[in-house]
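Dig into these lines:

——
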Amino acid sequence: MRQAFSGKEVVENSDDEPAASQPNKPRLLLIATMPWMFPARLAGAFREVGFHVEAVCQLGHPLRHLNHAIPTHRLGWIGETASIETAIHRSNPDLLIPCDDPAVQSLHHLHRRDGTGKLARLIEKSLGDPAGFPVTEKRSALIAAASSMGLRAPRTECIANRHALSQVATRATYPSVLKRDQTWSGIGVAFVQSEAGLPMAWSWIAGWISLLRAVKAVRRDRRPRTLLDVLANRGAAVELQEFVAGTPAKRAVLCRDGRVVAGLSVLALQTAYQGGPASVVRVIDHPEMTQATEALVRHLGLSGFCGFDFVISPSGQAYLLELNPRATPVSHLALANGTHLPAALYRELTGSDPACVAPTVPHDLIALFPTEWQRDRSGASLHNAHHDAPWDEPALLAYAGLAGKEASTTAGLVRRKLHTLLTA
């Protein structure tokens, strides 16, 4: 069996096929600095369609709990970028798949440092034209670019510092949203109901309160670098953005050299909390979202997996809010219309169809795992939606709190009943 080495860590390759066949498989390296579940789902989907998959992540990450274990490389608690670089050299991937914003930032840093070397070329192949990196890194730059292209986006005004709040406040409409560049996990976003709330909102995202929130995020995400990143980016741009009433929506795409290869759009019917990740989505076809995404992918020369956040107004207009130049929680879904981004990537890289066809989601209303279960453990919303739970991955179910001792509790009974209903 082939062995993958990561510092002091040695992980046996547990792919079912013999080692002789491994070099023929396209090789992917997933990069996950956050303890999110969807990278594990995506890794399973990649493996199922025919990729050789490895990952760099923290100890205890869901990527390390797959039934069919994949080679993993240890992510350093502080030196994440160095760990990622080591994992790239050891895994020799054909493509890099970042799964969160810090992973993208690390790749951008490595690209700047490597210049025109082999590593920089691999990052460009994975993420696209480096001329677009400054735009994908910053919310303010993205909205400015979208507006210059004539795309629909909320009115936005940059705020130089706290002292400039009073000048901007008189021109703003309320409610508004205060946003800070180079932040994630909600640390850099605050809703502002009135002019009087601007100073507190500033403290919430750019003042001393933001440091307390970063400490909380360190504990929640088990990622010490979050606090260091917030401190290092104290000078990041802050903008006041018009609040657009409506329903959140997302479009996840696979792109290559500025061309959209495949994509799916969803409407967020339920979120984990206000402004938080979607927990129940409905698959939709929204031409304006599709056209705006294609225009930005082409303009920025993007490659790889990307997620575009929109809000759909009551009149049906799609306003662009953000771009995540990475995989997102719906990237692994296989839809009944044939859309499956991992399979599309396999075709794009090999020129042939995957040998294995992924099971499709039976209908367009989907409860995302584990977000919806964790939001409402009664399971009420799951009766009308397809619950995207990995029933064949007991370790992932246990990681999310859906296995073990709870099997004999009311929650366990609900889970088993839902499984029966949704798989009947």
In short: The radius of gyration is 21 Å.
